[in-house]
Write a structure and sequence with these properties.
The structure is a single chain. This protein is an alpha/beta fold and 931 residues long. The protein is built from 34 helices and 25 strands. The strands form five sheets. The chain has an eight-stranded mixed β-sheet with strand order 1-9-10-8-7-2-4-3, sandwiched between helices. A seven-stranded mixed β-sheet has the order 14-11-15-16-18-17-22, with helices on both faces. Helix 8 runs parallel beside helix 16 (409-426) and helix 12 crosses helix 24 (643-655). The longest helix is centred in the first third of the chain and has 24 residues, at 171-194. It is globular and about 105 Å long. It starts with 7 loop residues before the first helix and ends with a strand. Mean pLDDT is 92; it is low at 43-54. The protein binds thiamine diphosphate. Thiamine diphosphate binds at residues 235, 299-301, 339-342, 371, 373, 375-377, 442. Thiamine diphosphate is lined by residues 235, 299-301, 339-342, 371, 373, 375-377, 442.
């Protein structure tokens, strides 16, 4: 066997193995030993190549092959990535000496040892190695040794070494790049000159970001993509907004001139607006068929990542047909621009990367660009990450990484072209680490030399990439010597005349969502005729030929089958109500997407939206199969994340607002992990940016003795953020209420979209008191307040009205004390926000002889709805009688850790509710006090 039958690294490995065998035959496995017993490696030269290597020292051959392998793997360590000239770290394995060979030895060896496109037509191994060095240790660091899928690895190597993604270098192309970076630079300089010190988070030092984006977007548009979604934080955002998303200069300059006047006040919409470097945009005209949008972002770095990715997923998903939703990654492209400190530092990045290959979340490949200015405010890379590069995290996700010197336009454009082609070929994420610098301080009012004096001395005399590129082109004679300056004058002129002719700022006011007339939600009809419900129920229970259900599920299915036998029997449990709500919504042609941890089965084993054949494991999703459906149903168990997945669903929802998007928490309190998404996007997105989200959150909530972390969904967090009608918060106590609220949400998607938070039950999922009758689905609608079901007839004798919300209602009405407390009425507030003052005042108006009104809750006094409802109740009562609080005392922890202690307190709540005299005894945590 000849050595060159093994290629490159393989040859090295075989020879290494052979060496080991020669030294000690026992050190290799028996099969290899057998092969080597009859094998004599010869490094024969293919005919036509000189010099012949026959008879050469085998160690030299191994050394050469290993050297080539090391350059491919570690060459990036010797690449000149920093435009400011800091030397690369290098690596000993990149020198021939480390492999026991010299340049002269290499000249004696065949180029074929090196293998790959670089070796082709090289005269010998030395020449091939030099070519490798020029490729791998240049101004691009090819960092993808961690990509171990053979097909991808080979493609990347060939793409790198063939140079086929190098940009064209004809006069027209190089001039176009010069033109673009002149625009980019002049825009920043003009803003600096016109509005000195005003924050704009200049892009200078990373100017090539814009041509890189151009290149990727052109590739995508040429390839037939329809949507591009660009997610980014503050750095360079204004520049990208104007040059990539075509936001007019006039609009940006108006915002700089007087941001307040440019965004007209709309207090009636709760409008606050936001700073200009958080604004989103969408291109007015397409490139090819492709529109590009950029979601608005909050200050919270990287929080926009999953939002942009979710938008892209939505844009590429067809949902208007029965069955599963169909995603096509070719029509939509997400691009995320990250900060070099934020990328490794913010956990949301890892969560977002983890979505990339999951069936319910993949985007067909997200292109990531780290806008790496080697600083995070004042923090250095040493302060900011434990990985070797800012991009280190991406390695674990097998994402190819190209580090590229931002002062080398050719290298930057090659990276962009290669990234795009990789995405086309494999449909996977790619990362460009664009290494530049930051010409000014973190913002333009900041003095960077306090903390980076040496770096900023260097930057002061460092030419811009435009100057650098101009000089190169003029020296080569590719462009006329006066072209660079004439371009600078041209773009300054454009900005100056735009600024001079700026029209009144009001013309640049953003368009805001309209608001539905008050009470629109209450008028929605959500009942469904019984025949229709029965039909859909049966269709959802249809048994496909040959599908075997788990025996344990059979009983429940049988119960559901007979749920419509009697219209007035409480036969509809929570899960059935949900299935019927989903079924009828799909039959109305509204697609549904539902995600969350373990949602397919349901945390409490109640949903079973996906059945698994008991013998084959094959899946069945009835909501995708039933014939009445006119839209897709998709359901996915999410990864174990809250922050990124909520961000993703938010993005999906705002991109495709006419689909019902539902996220369920395993337990309500886990939404703590998504607090940034709630505060920065869900509850304030309308006031800041004019977005109109309608995402549904299902949050299991209720005190059942499971301890401080499985009791409360913290409704107070939503009530704290509730203002200007920005959300709906409900807590349904019956299956019918849940059915109607889901259908109401679907009906309002277009007319009056608002996020919907539903506090859902746990143990009550199967409680008879929560079950509803078919008639209630047919005739009812969602009620924001439910009066005492026995109390109306005896309103005149009622001395106390207890108002509560959620599961504690069931504790009250099922208690033994209820029967003996005929003078106590128990009412439920089912919608906490918008607060149903009209409905509640009607209820209270019925009880004319009350001695006190009680707000009763399970949560401690400083949690739950109490702080929110108290002023509203006081106003409703208007001093006619005292208001009393019954609930747990103030506490730093949501609940007791012991089930026994919980039961004691819960019992005490009930006692207090029906006790018209005394206060709570020890050792209860429960308070009963007049306020
Ligand atoms: C979640 C969050 N934490 C802290 C900050 C404050 N902050 C704003 S920019 C910045 C540095 C960001 O550095 P980098 O990611 O490298 O981006 P650069 O500004 O250098 O482009 C910090 C700490 C923030 N905006 N968001």
């Amino acid at each position: 066997m000849r050595l060159d039958e093994f290629a490159g690294a393989n040859a090295g490995y075989v020879l290494e193995l052979y060496e080991r065998y020669r030294r000690n035959p026992e050190s290799v496995d028996p099969q290899t030993r057998k092969t080597f017993e009859s094998w004599e490696p010869t490094a024969e030269q293919p005919s036509g190549e000189t010099p012949a290597a026959a008879g050469v020292d085998i160690r030299k051959v191994v050394g050469a092959a290993n050297l080539a392998d090391c350059i491919r793997r570690y060459g990036h360590l010797a690449a000149q990535l920093d435009p400011l000239g800091s030397p690369p770290v290098g690596d000993p394995s990149l020198s021939p000496a480390a492999h026991g060979i010299s340049d002269e030895d290499l000249r004696q060896l065949p180029a074929s040892l090196v293998d790959g496109p670089a070796a082709q037509s090289a005269a010998n191994a030395f020449e091939a190695i030099e070519r490798l060095r020029r490729i791998y240790c240049s101004t691009t660091g090819f960092d993808y040794a961690h990509v171990f899928v053979p097909e991808e690895r080979v493609w990347l190597r060939n793409a790198t070494e063939s140079g086929r993604f190098l940009p064209p270098m004809d006069a027209h192309s190089v001039e176009a790049v010069l033109d673009r970076i002149t625009q980019v630079e002049v825009f920043e300089r003009f803003l600096q000159r016109t509005f000195p010190g005003k924050t704009r988070f200049s892009l200078e030092g990373l100017d090539m970001l814009v041509p890189i984006l151009d290149e990727i977007i052109c590739g995508a548009a040429d390839h037939g993509a329809r949507h591009g979604v660009l997610g980014m934080a503050h750095r360079g955002r204004l520049n990208v907004l104007t040059h990539v998303l075509d936001k007019p200069y006039a609009q940006i300059l108006a915002e700089f001139k007087d941001p307040v006047a440019a965004q007209s006040f709309r207090t009636d919409l709760g409008w606050t607006g936001d700073v200009k470097y958080h604004a989103g945009a969408r291109t007015a005209a397409p490139r090819g068929q492709m529109y590009i949008s950029m979601p608005p972002n909050p200050s919270h770095l990287e929080a926009v990542d999953p939002v942009a990715v979710g938008m892209s997923r939505a844009a590429g998903t067809r949902a208007a047909q029965r069955g599963a939703a169909q995603f096509d990654g070719a029509i939509t492209v997400p691009i995320l621009i990250h900060g070099d400190a934020a990328f490794p530092g913010q956990g949301i990045v890892a969560e977002t990367l983890n979505l990339s290959r999951l069936p319910g979340y993949s985007t067909g490949g997200t292109i990531h660009i780290i806008a790496n200015n080697q600083l995070g405010f004042t923090a250095t890379p040493e302060d900011s990450y434990s990985t070797s590069y800012a991009s280190g995290l991406a390695r674990g996700f097998k994402i190819p990484i190209l580090h590229v010197n931002a002062d080398d336009p050719v290298a930057c454009l090659e990276a962009a072209r290669l990234a795009w082609e990789y995405r086309v070929r494999f449909g996977l994420d790619f990362l460009i680490d664009l290494v530049g610098y930051r010409r000014h301080g973190h913002n333009e009012g900041d003095e960077p030399s306090f903390t980076q004096p040496v770096m900023y001395t260097k930057i002061a005399s460092h030419p811009t990439v435009r100057e650098h590129w101009s000089r190169t082109l003029v020296e080569k004679g590719t462009i006329a010597a006066d072209l660079p300056e004439s371009l600078v004058r041209k773009y300054f002129g454009e900005l100056e005349s735009t600024y001079a002719s700026l029209k009144p700022e009001q013309e640049y006011a953003p368009s805001l969502p309209t608001k539905a007339p008050a009470g629109a939600a209450a008028r929605v009809e959500t009942g469904v005729p019984l025949d229709r419900l029965r039909e859909i129920n049966e269709a959802l229970l249809a048994r496909p030929e040959g599908f075997t259900f788990s025996r344990k599920l059979e009983r429940g299915l049988e119960r559901r089958r007979s749920a419509f036998a009697n219209a007035t029997e409480r036969s509809i449990d929570w899960a059935t109500a949900e299935q019927l709500a989903f079924g009828t919504i799909l039959a109305d042609g509204i697609p549904i997407r539902m995600t969350g941890e373990d949602v397919e089965r349901g945390t409490f084993s109640h949903r079973h939206a996906v059945f698994h054949d008991a013998s084959t494991g094959k899946q069945l999703v009835p909501l995708q199969e039933f014939p009445q459906a006119r839209a897709s149903f998709e359901i996915h168990n999410s990864p174990l994340s809250e922050n990124a997945v909520v961000g993703f669903e938010f993005g999906y929802n705002v991109q495709e607002p006419l689909r019902l998007v539902i996220w369920e928490a395993q337990y309500g309190d886990f939404i703590n992990g998504a607090q940034v998404m709630l505060d920065q996007f869900v509850t304030s997105g309308r006031a800041k940016w004019g977005l109109a989200p309608s995402l549904v959150f299902l949050l299991p909530h209720g005190y059942e003795g499971q301890g401080p972390e499985h009791s409360s969904a913290r409704p107070e967090r939503f009530l704290d953020a509730a203002a200007g009608i920005n959300l709906r918060l409900v807590t349904c106590t019956t299956a019918a209420q849940y059915f109607h609220v889901l259908r109401r949400q679907a009906a309002l998607l277009e007319r009056d979209p608002l996020p919907l938070i539903v506090l859902t039950p746990k143990s009550l999922l199967r409680h008879p008191a929560v079950a509803s009758t078919p008639r209630e689905l047919e005739q009812g609608r969602f009620l924001s307040v439910i009066d005492d079901e026995d109390g109306r007839g005896r309103a005149g004798s009622i001395e106390r009205v207890v108002i509560c919300s959620g599961k504690v209602y069931v504790d009250l009405v099922t208690s033994d004390r209820r029967a003996s407390a005929a003078s106590v009425a128990v009412c439920r507030v089912e919608q906490l926000y918008p607060f149903p003052e009209v409905a509640l005042s009607e209820v209270l108006g019925r009880y004319r002889s009350v001695r006190d009104v009680v707000w009763l809750q399970e949560e401690p006094e400083n949690m739950g709805a109490w702080q929110f409802v108290r002023p509203q109740l006081e106003e409703l009562i208007g001093g006619r009688c005292p208001l009393r609080y019954i609930g747990r005392a103030r506490s730093s922890s949501p609940s007791e850790g012991s089930a026994a202690w919980h039961q004691l307190n819960q019992k005490m709540l009930v006692e207090q509710a029906f006790d018209l005299g005394s206060s709570a005894p020890e050792p209860s945590m429960v308070l009963s006090k007049e306020v």
